[in-house]
Structures are given as C-alpha cells and as structure tokens.
C-alpha cells in the first residue's frame, strides 16, 4: 500500500445497547455528526472542507440505520455537498473494512484529498439480527449454509481448544478491571462526550464497565447457550467437526461483549493531502488486511488476517508495542494469548470489548482509534488491531506512529 497517514481519530463512549441506555435517545446520524463536530474543532474547518468521501460501516441497515446511513450522516453534519458517501456491512469488522477501503482508494488513485471512514451502530434502536435475514430465520437455509449464532461458535472454540470456565472468567475480570483503571485515571483523549439536544452531556465514558467484576461474581453465573445449541445448531457444529461428540457450553452472558451503541471516525489521506490542510500525520498505515475462515467455527478469521498483515510487513508480534485484540467472546482472546505466547500486558491494556461493549459496525474503527491514541499515551511505535466477525470474516491493521 502506498503510504497513507492517519491524521486524527475519535470515538464516542459506548452506551448500553438497549432502551434506556445513555445514548438511546439519539439517532445514529447524530452520533456521527457529533464526531464530525469534534474533528472540525480538532483539525480545523478547512481540513474538513477538503474531505472527498465518507465511508461508514453499519451492520443493521434498517429503520433508523437505513436510507444509506453515510449519506444521511453527511447531510446532517453539513459536510461538503460534493463529498461521496457509502455504507457497508461486513459484520463485526465493518468499521475496519470501511477504513481499509478508504485507504486503498486513496493509495490507488494517488488522490491528494482527505477521507473520513469509520462506523456506527445503535443497538438500542436497531437490535441484533433486526433485519431478519433469511440466512438467520429459516432453519433449512441456516443448516444448508452452516449458519450458527456466534456465541455457540465461542463454545465450539472452547470445546475444541480445551479452554476452561476459569480461563474465561479470568480474562473477563481482567478486561473490566483494566477498563475501570483507565477511566479512573481520567478522560481518554480520543473519546468525545456525547451531548443531548439541550447541550447536557449524556455520556462521557463507556457505560458497561463493571469495576466490581470478580472471579467470585462470575462463578455464580450459569452457562447461557446450551438451550440455543439444542435448537439444532449443535448438530450443525458436530457435523462440521466429526472429531467431537458433544459441545461443552461454558460461556455465560458475562463472557460475551455487551451489545452497545457507539461510533468512531478516522481522518486519513496522503501526507501531501494533510500538509495542504495544515495537518500533521499521527501515524501511517503499514498494512490493512482481511480474511475469511471456517463459517462454523467463525472466530478464527481475525487470526488469519493478523498473520497476513505481519507477513506483508515482515514484522513479528514481538515487534508490536500495543495490540487491540477484539474480545469476541472470552475464548478468543484467551486462545490468542496462549497460542501466540504474546505478552498480555501489550494486549488491550485499557480493557476491551468484554468490558466496554460491541457496537458491531463501529467496533473496527473504535479499536483503531484506541490503538492510535494508546500508542501515543504509551510512547509506542507499532500497533496492531485484530477483529473477528460472524460466519468467518476477519480484519487486521498495523500502524506506525509518526
């Protein structure tokens, strides 16, 4: 990839993705609009006037998130009329896919103009699977296409890998404790407080973090997904994995990333585009990759994307100073740290999805935003973000701080 720079990146706090959640009174385009306002303040009106495109990831593209949400957000935020816009769905990696496509487009065209990319999801008003795709709802289609709800694939991973309930509890406790400590130190610079119509702050920090989470409190929770597996999905998984005779269901609700509302935006482009707008690059993109994997096991495609990014750059995990690894159910980060022997202190040092939540289409851009700001806080140089999505989609990005 020709050198593409990251000039700024901001995100909202993540609100609880249910009616009554702190952000649930707003619309998705209002969340994006508040991030645009923040970027105008941070980077300058002239820079935003030079932006040529807005690319947004969003999974549930119906109702309040329908109507070509990137276009709706552009109009709401009073972005330039001539700016193009597009909304895409690549499941839980959508926000990183949007950023990757914007970067590839800029690199391929040699276009010295700026681009905005990111994602948004408000699960309080567009719930999970609200589009009722045939793929989800029709049992015959689900079996034929090997569709399995993602939490069950987490139990499949735990069964195949011999991951214990105690291991899931430990990594979940760590996520909450790290997130709580990060917020206790003070506001994170990349997080933009969200305001209501009256100007009052609705939410200034991630809403789902539970500082009192402990091994004892998690031990009281029962596994959650056995009844779902019994609806025929266990049979689909066992047919795909003939070496298994049963699925051990051990994930509880606490081992799942909470559904959430949230958004993130990244301002990117060539070094020349930034210079013309008076911007200083904060990082460059070294690699941005995507991968597909087993649609039944699902949560392994991020590993494949990560390995492709490392191979493209000639780097190893030992070279990486900070890793934002999507906690797509507790089994996945445990497998990563165990199998790759990576230093846990460099992985999600300020907590992860298990504590802060998963606004699906926004998560990729949120992790990239956290990665950029975290490298600056830590004084690190190289950062890696890794994401996994349903039916075996994955994405990864490596950035180098300038």
How would you describe what is shown here?
The protein has 402 residues and is an alpha+beta fold. It is 39% helix and 19% strand. The chain is built from 15 helices and 12 strands. The chain has helices at residues 28-43, 45-49, 69-76, 94-109, 134-137, 139-144, 150-161, 165-184, 215-219, 226-240, 271-276, 301-313, 331-339, 353-356, 363-378, and strands at residues 5-11, 15-16, 51-57, 84-88, 114-122, 194-195, 201-203, 260-269, 283-292, 322-325, 382-389, 393-401. The strands form 2 sheets. Strands 1, 2, 3, 4, 5, 8, 9, 10, 11 and 12 form a 10-stranded mixed β-sheet that branches. It has a two-stranded antiparallel ribbon with strand order 6-7. Helix 1 (28-43) packs across helix 3 and helix 4 packs across helix 15 (363-378). The two termini are 17 Å apart.
For the biggest sheet, the summary is: 10 strands, mixed
- Anisotropy-based shape: globular
Helical coverage, percent range: 25-40%
**Helix-strand topology string:** EEHHEHEHEHHHHEEHHEHEHEHHHEE
Radius of gyration: 20 Å
Beta-strand share of residues: 15-25%
Q: What is the strand tally?
A: 12
Assembly state: single chain
SS class = alpha+beta
What is the terminal separation in angstroms? 17 Å
**Average of pLDDT:** 96
User: How many separate helices?
Assistant: 15
Low-confidence stretches: none
């Amino acid at each position: 990839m020709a050198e593409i720079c990251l000039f700024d990146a901001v995100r909202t706090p993540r609100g609880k993705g249910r009616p009554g959640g702190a952000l649930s009174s707003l619309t998705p385009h209002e969340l994006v609009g508040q991030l645009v306002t923040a970027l105008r303040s941070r980077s300058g009106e002239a820079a935003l006037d030079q932006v040529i495109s807005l690319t947004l990831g969003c999974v549930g593209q119906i109702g309040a998130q329908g109507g070509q949400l990137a276009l709706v957000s552009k109009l709401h935020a009073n972005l330039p009329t001539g700016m193009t816009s597009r909304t895409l769905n690549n499941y839980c990696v959508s926000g990183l896919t949007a950023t990757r496509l914007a970067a590839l487009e800029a690199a391929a065209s040699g276009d010295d103009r700026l681009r905005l990319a990111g994602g948004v999801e408000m699960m309080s008003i567009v719930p999970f699977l609200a589009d009722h795709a045939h793929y989800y709802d029709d049992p015959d289609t689900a079996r034929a296409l090997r569709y399995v709800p993602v939490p069950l694939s987490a139990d499949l991973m735990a069964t195949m890998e011999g991951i214990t309930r105690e291991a899931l509890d430990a990594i979940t406790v760590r996520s909450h404790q790290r997130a709580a400590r990060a917020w206790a130190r003070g506001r994170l610079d990349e997080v933009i407080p969200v305001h209501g119509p009256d100007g009052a702050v609705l939410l200034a920090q991630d809403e789902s973090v539970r500082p009192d989470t402990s091994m004892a409190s998690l031990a009281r929770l029962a596994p959650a997904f056995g009844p779902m597996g019994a609806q025929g999905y266990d049979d689909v998984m066992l047919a795909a994995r003939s070496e298994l005779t049963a699925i051990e269901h051990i994930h509880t609700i606490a081992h799942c990333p909470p559904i959430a509302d949230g958004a993130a935006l990244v301002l990117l482009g060539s070094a020349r585009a930034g210079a013309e707008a008076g911007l200083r690059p904060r990082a460059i993109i070294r690699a941005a990759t995507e991968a597909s994997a087993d649609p039944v096991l699902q949560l392994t495609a991020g590993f494949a994307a990560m390995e492709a990014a490392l191979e493209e750059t000639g780097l190893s995990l030992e070279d990486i100073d900070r890793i934002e690894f999507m906690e797509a159910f507790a089994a996945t980060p445990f497998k990563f740290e165990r199998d790759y022997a990576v230093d846990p202190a460099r992985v999600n040092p300020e907590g992860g999805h298990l504590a802060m939540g998963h606004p699906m289409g926004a998560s990729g851009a949120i992790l990239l935003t956290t990665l950029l700001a975290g490298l600056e806080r830590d004084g690190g140089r190289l950062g890696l973000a890794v994401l996994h999505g349903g039916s075996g989609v994955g994405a990864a990005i490596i950035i180098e701080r300038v």
